[in-house]
Amino acid sequence: MKQQLTLGIRLRDDATFDNYFAGQNEQVVYNLKLQDEPYVFLFGENGTGKSHLLQAACHQTGKNGFPVVYLPLAEEGLMPAMLDGMESMSLIALDDIHNVIGDEHWEQALFNLYNRAREKGVNILVSSAESLTSLNIKLADLKSRLSWGPIYKLTALTDSEKQLALQERAKNRGLDLTDDVVTYLLKRSARDMTSLFALFEKLDRASMVEKRKLTIPFIKSYL
Amino acid sequence: MSQPIWDQCYSQLEQSLSAQQFSTWIRPLQAVFAGNDIMLLAPNQFVKDWVCEHFLTQIQTTLDSLSEQPPLVSIEIGSDRSIQDSGKSIRPDFNTSDQKPVKIKTSSTLNPNFTFESFVEGNSNQLARAAAQQVAVNPGESYNPMLIYGGVGLGKTHLMHAIGNELIKHNPDANVVYLHSERFVADMVKALQHNRINEFKAYYRTVDALLIDDIQFFAKKERSQEEFFHTFNALLEGQKQIIMTCDRYPKEVDGLEDRLKSRFGWGLPVAIEPPELETRVAILMSKASLSHVDLPNEVAFFIAKRLPSNIRELEGALRRVIANSSFTGTPITLEFAKDALRDLLALQAKLVTIDNIQKMVAEYYKIRIADLLSKKRSRSIARPRQMAMALCKELTNHSLPEIGDAFGGRDHTTVIHACRKIAELKEEELMIKEDFTNLLRTLTT
């Protein structure tokens, strides 16, 4: 029989500025929070929290009742037509833009979106795994628009910061992750934060289903 | 009223969907309340279809659970204009088949910050600016149509808005319409779909000044070209001012009808060139003072030297330095700026060294690097050498004596002479100007 979770017990990790573990990126977070720049380009390797920050920006603007949109361009099935009419938003967050760069239709649609957004005074926040200079953008006009605002680089967390980040997330869920457990996890998983958080998520679920604490023996049996 | 129920439903969805799903599909929806029912407005067809398929049932179920008499939810494409536009758009909305007479609002889509005062003048844009001012004073008379052309990020749009703002200053009732050519095309397509093409035509033919950005995007859109052609003629006949920008000389745009190409050239086509170093510094200084920031000269020179070809990039770099300084409370010094722009400049820094410039120039003119450094004074060697020296001054932070040294131990006065010579020749000889621009572009992108 399938094991069942009791509804409502599990807390969700909302992506907000407050629960972003900044490490050396404090300044970037500070600047993003101010939201006083209409166009921002954010880049950093995988697992540096780009999506988290974009969603946090949406959360901040959205909770004041303004329509905002977060577009994960890495997702399959999205089309350039997805950008139509988006200038009616207050903030447009375009995540993982590197996935669509090089595609003529997407580049054209993004360029058009920038123009419409400027006309309406809409903010655009962009993230990419690659810096603007290394992105192979075909449409020079688009490149120039992407570079209009400030460009921030996100720095990956060090191992000790990752440890703290995991412990902080656990604490927010009312769990206590000992140093031993975290060190154990760091040695046995891909060490980017996306994978680590995903693994933690799975372990948290499993521990709840089996009603066991998150200890090394439990993790061993699970992995 | 259904609003409180919707607010509850919204919070519940936020709890039950992933943060990503919620931000992608639910946050963009705007709720409109009619009696007990709720209409959700999606920004486009794609979002509407997706929400319909994946979330609408869940939304209705949630609403059902929240009230004895639950509101009925539906979804349409649109946006709540009363919140969104707050009178910003001057153009009628051709995206409906609503045939009510179009009321034109008085406020415009011009950016009030783009004025002649905030436009930094230099050799590269002097002519364009002077012409623009003429047009602003005598619209429809002196230069009609006016066409500003040049590469991306050089200030074409700024100049165009400056004219528009000036026109409105002189005549607050003037109907000045600014739009991107893509928007013209989109509006026309919508007008066709909704059977409002006559209204569309009538609208564009009654404006006092039409400002159209990036006309190269009309390329290969024949129906739009046709429509624009007629609008264009009607406005010219009525002595209404037309101002256009293009990223190159219109004759060079593929897919543009010949009759349009020739008409675009009727009035005054003026070029904006990439700004020279001193203008780039002046631009940075002016932007900094607008933000009430004290920018030391050496920092302005540092940034300007590294970002030679595009004003938007220049502005982006400056904003970043300012943001970092306000965060840390540190005054802006050269060291601070270098640190703040480390990532941004890493790529450029690698490329632009004296060695690199010499190598590139030698390749470009098909001579050997040894020739550049030699004592030879024949023109075929001396000219490229002068070009390389001028580029070194433009793009690196080396002092003139250092540059002289790197070219076979020459005196710094030789470098000064080379820079002057190239500056002079750029004015007189098209070839030299092209060589310089090409080399600059290769070295910095």
List keywords for this structure.
heterodimer, A: 223 residues, alpha/beta, Rossmann fold, 2 domains, five-stranded parallel β-sheet, 8 helices, elongated, B: five-stranded parallel β-sheet, three-stranded mixed β-sheet, 8 strands, globular
What can you see in these coordinates?
Chain A has 223 residues and is an alpha/beta fold. Chain A has helices spanning 26-34, 50-62, 104-120, 140-146, 159-172, 179-188, 193-209, 216-222, and strands at residues 39-43, 68-72, 91-95, 123-128, 151-153. In chain A, 42% of the residues lie in helices and 11% in strands. In chain A, helix 5 crosses helix 6 (179-188). Mean pLDDT of chain A is 85; it is low at 1-12. Chain B is built from 22 helices and 8 strands. In chain B, a hairpin with a 2-residue loop joins strand 1 (30-34) and strand 2 (37-42). In chain B, helix 8 runs antiparallel to helix 9 (197-204), helix 12 crosses helix 14 (311-328) and helix 19 packs across helix 21. The longest helix of chain B is centred in the C-terminal third of the chain and has 18 residues, at 311-328. At the A-B interface, helix 1, helix 2, strand 2, helix 3 and helix 4 of A face helix 2, helix 3, helix 14 and helix 16 of B.
Terminus-to-terminus distance of chain A? 22 Å
Query: Can you count the beta strands of chain A?
Result: 5
Question: Structural class per helix/strand content of chain A?
Answer: alpha/beta
| Parts with pLDDT < 50 across at least 5 consecutive residues of chain B | 81-90, 99-107
Total count of helical runs of at least 4 residues of chain B: 22
Overall number of domains of chain A? 2
Q: Helical segment tally of chain A?
A: 8
Shape of chain B: globular
The level 1 CATH classification of the largest domain in chain A is: Alpha Beta
- Name the beta content range of chain A: 5-15%
